[in-house]
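Appendix B, example 12.
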Amino acid sequence: MFLSLLAGLLLAPAADTLQAVTVVADRGVVVSRADTVKIQSLSDAGGVLTGLPALYVGDYGSAAGLKSASLRGLGSAHTAIYVDGVRVGNVQSGQADLGFLDFNDLSSVVVDYAQNSLSFSTAQPFFCCKKVRGSARLGYGSFGTWQPYAKIAFRLGKDWSLSTHAGGIVTNGQFPLEDGSLRANNDLKQLQAGADLWGRIEGGDFHAKVYFNGANRGTPGSTAWPSTDRQTDRNVFGQWSLRKAVSPVYALHLSGKTAYDKIYYASEWGDSTYEQTEFQLNSVHKFTLAPWWTLSLAADASLDGLLSNLYRQDRIGAVVAVASAFRWARFKADVALEYAGTFDEGHSPWHSLSPSLDLRLTLAPGLDLVAFGRRAFRAPTFNELYYPGYGNTELKPEDAWLADAGLDWHRRCGAWTLKARADGFYNWLTDKIVSAPTPADPNIWLPYNVGKVQAVGADVLAAADYASGDWKAAFSARYSYQNAVDKTPDSYSFGQPIPYIAKHTVALSGEASWKGWGLGAAWNLRAGRRDAAGEMPNWNTLDAQAGKSFRLGRMGCIGLKVIGRNLLNCRYETVSGYPMPGRSLMAAVEYKF
């Protein structure tokens, strides 16, 4: 157990093997092509997700800026975000800001290429051993950054446990730019707190969660158009999930959520406030009809409301899906059909019918052939439709088709576990929504459906894990090629790459631990990117961390950790005009009992 706790404290984030697993999500049973990434202490969205080449992380200002994620050239609005199996909603902008998540309290994220989603999970406390467990950590680093965090978990009888946590970040965000000036208005003060109740019931389990995020931050803007605007965030949600095997034939999964989000912008152009309420109720009914055949029925309902000083709008969402899984010796197949309806007050509804198919064939022990295909559909967001002076109520939904095929290989050789994967994918997106200058006034931008986007690419992975005695080690090498281009006939950008999607991405990572010592490093390269102005510079980053854990007998243990980010001091931007920090350091001390 000591080594397990030590590895969680000391080692750098690394992605596990690509795998196919049956996932019961809010819309039924699917077989996923997914990467599972461990989340370590003092991580953020970029540090956790940058090591996955097919995933683009957009960062609009480092500490205080919006952080979004996009899979395989489809755009961030097409990438669903889940926390403990329940979807995160944001109908205003259509993309969840990953900065509102508390990465200190999350244990892993599943990046699902088939469902085009990121699913974050909270670590469940142990039900055995001690009745009370806890930890406290304080980190300090570059740019005047402080990161305190504390967590305590209680065992409530044999089958129940409660964990609570609180933490935050305070930073001035003033990292130096290439010209010697400091990044201004990038300060952040953020508090995150929550509680989780876990329970084991006969034939299943229960999980309830409450979470609060509050932040006061600058909105630095781009270097071409610096901003003095301020933003205040308040996010509160409560959710629950119940899974129970009612009989050998029937299993039930229910979940629900209530959320309230408030964003206040103080701007020289005029202040604005957005208040969003969200309600969800999700159900999955799974029937095991034979050892080789399962059937699932899913029904979800959601109600979203947005109130601002600019407009007010309500949205009702409904999803009904039927899915079936077949297992015959070396062959596995999952097929599903999903109906989704989106109903806005005062607007014609949108309806979609989305089929999906996922296949896996074992060619030889440890070698699988896999493939999937599905439709992905996105209704326009509230701001795209209704924002005064900007919205376009004539917008069509984005419609995409996703396809993937590849090989998975794994083998155990003594203390070594070897893994490899090769994947090819093809995504076709129609009626993509973008913002562009109006013909009448180039200074006024409006959202339009511009046509078609084609994304073709390949992902390759080679990884090795080692475990023997006190030694543990893991190494991985990843390469991704993506060619996402505009295929809209007669478009001024026909044949040109979609902005910010790198053609070539390389990610190398390694980590090792021995008797309380830990060392990890990760190198990432992005090449072949464009924006509206043309080619963008290639960039690469090298991150490393080292630490040591000391036992204190029955009193617990103390861990010391040092993290260096962008050690090569590469000057780069994930979004044009929004520079990322150069070299930075962070040190932390943590006590666990």
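Residues 1-29 have pLDDT under 50 and may be disordered. Residues 276 and 306 are 4 Å apart (CA to CA).
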